[in-house]
Structure formats: structure tokens, C-alpha cells
Design brief:
single chain, mainly beta, six-stranded antiparallel β-sheet, five-stranded antiparallel β-sheet, 46% strand, signal, LVIVD repeat-containing protein, LVIVD
Length: 428
């Protein structure tokens, strides 16, 4: 029912440029560098990908997640750092959950759900000193970027990557070896110029969070609503029945438009942020999300949060995100079947965002944290601008605001028309 979790990741990694125009070669022939993978047993590889250790320094901070008095910080592709936030003025690092290939987590009733190389991993965190009962659901989630390539594996410079001998169901890539071959351009294109959808060995073989759940930021791909976990991937929603917390049931995935990046819910509606638009799905029947409507925009990276009759979407242009200029889009969703753009506010490089009562918080990358008054939306006067910090994502909690950026965790206290920094913790 689920896809093999390794068939798209390498799409981005092919290159077909000749690297030697030596006069010693026959006309029409060139020297090419071909990389072939070094592999290990996939089962052993995944078993070694999960471990609970004492705190370590973070390498690359990603998303944040809050649950009870704990903060979980994703170390992109490596795992999750656990912080005790009983005292927000002095949070303490207490554990590192090695979870290779991880980008997202979600928690309900002391059960942590996270992705790892396309699998769904479940663990009991009721005792932070003895995290255990770890289970892995093979191929339950397809994560296009990590898959079964070790996160610490360096990709060699090559003109092509040869996977013809790789068994994607049994082997994981742990390294590479390269060799030089001489062939004609026609021979090269015939052998390495295919698409994965054809004959590659990696192609496909076969309500706001409740009190018993945690809270993620706007960049999350996981969302728990009631007894269901929704995990979005590039072009579908993976649905899990978690009424039995220790034994999630994998349900049929729901296919969507491509480019899905984030998920948010308000009541019985899911709002998916994609690189071409916002997509709305009805989950009144939670096992089968049903498409309602969409709001399309130019190509850009696109998280979304919703509060009442308005959706707030940040679009970040440039690089792989697309050519669209960066900005905050305010969308009227009072008619859920016909979302209507009301206004665009220019931004520099926005990432995550969040709302709390009459405040809207925007992480504008290296331009810092921006705070707006949304009491008279779509008019959004700016209340404050915290400059000289790099910002990535925020979680507006009941008592304080959490923000992550460039390996630093910030916490702010709400004021009437402002916020005040109460602590910052360097994670590396």
C-alpha cells in the first residue's frame, strides 16, 4: 500500500556534463566520472539509526516541538534534542534521541512519532530517563530527501550515479566509489540518461492540538488531530489511526498536488502549504481527507497558519524556492470553497510564522523576528522588529513564545503590545 521510500531522492543528483576534452580521445568520445554506491544491509542500517544518548551539540537546527515542560529541537537528518523547559529562563539539555533521517515529530500521550528514512518510528517517552518501547513501521512514510542514504554520506562529484546493482529493498548507501570511463556521448546518454520512473533500481516497486498532544510550528509536516496522525510528503497525505498509541494503523494515503511542504489544521480542515499554493482538505471523516479548494500562487516555499476567517501564508522566493518575490499573503477563507487574497506584505526571506490572540509573528530569516497587530486584519500594523538575529520557526505557547534560528533557542514573554526576551540558549 505504501511506496518504496527511495525512488525520488536521487532525482536531484544526476549530472550529465563531460569532464575531459583531452585531445587523446577519439572524436565524439569523452572521459566521464561514474559513481557507484557502497552499501550495507538495510535492516542493520536502520536498527543502528535509533539510539537515546546524553545531550550533544546540535549540528544543524531545524524545527521545534513543545510538549508538557519539554522542548524538542530537530537536528536535521540526525535526530531530536530534548530540553527540560520547566524554568523557561534556564532551559536544560537532557537527552539526544538519535533518529537518523528525521525531519519531523509529533507527540500524543507520551508517545513520540517521528520519521526515519521513510519509516514511522514510535517510542515511549513517559520516562525521559528511560525512553524505550521503540517500534519501526517500514516504508510508512516516504521522505524524498533522506530515504536510505546515510545522512553523513558525502556525495562525490560525478557525471552520473550508477544504481543498476543496488537492491533498494535490502541495501542502504553508506559511501561511494568512483571510476573514469571513456564512452561516446550517445553511449553515455543511453546508459545514464534515463529517468527513475522508467527502469531504475530505485523506482517504485510495488483541530488545534489537543491537551494530550504537543504543539509544532508552521513548518511541520506532521499533525495530530484526535486519534489520527497526518504526515504530508511531496504529493500525498499519509494517514495513521493512532487510537492504539503503540500500534499505529497505516491507512490509505490521499494523493495531492505536488510540492506539499507543511500541514496545519483548524477544526475539521487541513491546510497544506505547497510550493505552488495552499490546499484545503476536509477531515470530518478523519480517515479520508477530502479536497475542498485551493489558493494558487507563484512558485515559492510556503508555510501557512490559520486563525478564524483568515489564513496567513509566507512565500519565500529565490534559490530552489522559485522566482516569486518574498511576502506575507493574507487570505480570506470565510468562504472556504473560494479563498480570496486580501493583501500582500513584502518580506525579505520569511520562514515560519504563528499567531497568538491579536499578534502575528513572522520569522523573516536573517531579517529577524517581526511582530504585527492583527486585531483589524487584513490591516497589520507592525508592533516590533527584533533585528540582528536569524529566525526560522516559532511556536506561540500559552505563556511564552518559542523561536528557533541558527542553532539558538529563544523564549519571549508576552506583553500587552510587545514581547520581551526571557532567555536564549545556544544549542551548539
Amino acid at each position: 500500500m505504501k511506496k518504496n521510500p527511495v525512488f525520488i531522492v536521487l532525482f536531484f543528483l544526476l549530472s550529465f556534463v563531460a569532464c575531459n576534452d583531452s585531445d587523446d580521445l577519439l572524436p565524439g568520445y569523452s572521459e566521464y566520472i561514474i559513481a557507484t554506491p557502497l552499501t550495507t544491509d538495510l535492516i542493520t542500517f536502520k536498527e543502528e539509526a535509533v539510539e537515546v544518548t546524553d545531550p550533544i551539540d546540535i549540528v544543524q537546527s531545524g524545527k521545534i516541538y513543545a510538549y508538557k515542560n519539554y522542548i524538542f529541537v530537530n537536528d536535521i537528518g540526525r535526530g531530536v534534542h530534548v530540553l527540560d523547559n520547566t524554568n523557561p529562563e534556564a532551559p536544560q539539555k537532557i537527552r539526544f534521541i538519535k533518529l537518523e533521517g528525521n525531519q519531523d515529530i509529533s507527540i500524543k500521550n507520551d508517545r513520540l512519532y517521528g520519521d526515519s528514512y521513510g519509516d514511522l518510528v514510535v517510542m515511549d517517552i513517559s520516562d525521559m530517563n528511560n525512553i524505550g518501547n521503540i517500534k519501526r513501521l517500514e516504508n510508512a512514510i516516504y521522505q524524498q530527501f533522506w530515504c536510505t542514504v546515510g545522512f553523513d554520506v558525502d556525495w562525490p562529484t560525478a557525471d552520473a550515479y550508477d544504481y543498476s546493482d543496488l537492491d533498494a529493498n535490502r541495501e542502504a548507501i553508506v559511501g561511494w566509489e568512483t571510476k573514469k570511463v571513456i564512452m561516446s556521448e550517445k553511449e553515455f546518454n543511453e546508459k545514464y540518461g534515463y529517468t527513475f520512473a522508467e527502469d531504475s533500481a530505485l523506482s517504485n516497486s510495488d483541530a488545534s492540538p489537543s491537551s494530550d498532544s504537543g504543539q509544532g510550528g508552521s513548518l511541520a509536516r506532521f499533525r495530530i488531530v484526535g486519534d489520527y496522525l497526518y504526515a504530508v510528503e511531496w504529493s500525498s497525505i499519509n494517514v495513521f489511526d493512532i487510537s492504539d498509541l503503540d500500534a499505529p494503523e497505516v491507512l490509505d494515503e490521499v494523493y495531492t498536488s505536488g510540492g506539499i511542504e507543511t500541514i496545519f489544521n483548524q477544526g475539521d480542515l487541513l491546510f497544506l502549504g505547497g510550493n505552488r499554493g495552499m490546499y484545503i482538505y476536509d477531515i470530518s471523516n478523519p480517515a479520508t481527507p477530502t479536497f475542498v479548494s485551493d489558493f494558487e500562487h507563484g512558485t515559492a516555499c510556503d508555510p501557512v497558519v490559520v486563525d478564524g476567517n483568515y489564513a496567513y501564508v509566507t512565500l519565500r522566493g529565490g534559490n530552489f524556492c522559485g522566482a516569486t518575490e518574498s511576502g506575507l499573503y493574507v487570505i480570506d477563507i470565510s468562504n472556504i470553497e473560494n479563498p480570496e487574497l486580501k493583501v500582500i506584505y513584502p518580506m525579505d526571506e520569511p520562514y515560519g510564522l504563528g499567531t497568538k490572540n491579536d499578534k502575528l509573528f513572522i520569522c523573516d530569516g536573517s531579517s529577524g523576528l517581526k511582530v504585527y497587530d492583527k486585531s483589524n486584519v487584513p490591516d497589520l500594523p507592525q508592533l516590533n522588529h527584533f533585528k540582528d538575529i536569524v529566525t526560522y520557526d516559532v511556536i506561540p505557547m500559552q505563556e511564552q513564545l518559542l523561536m528557533i534560528g541558527d542553532g539558538v533557542l529563544y523564549q519571549y514573554r508576552y506583553l500587552d503590545n510587545d514581547i520581551q526576551l526571557i532567555s536564549q540558549l545556544q544549542l551548539n
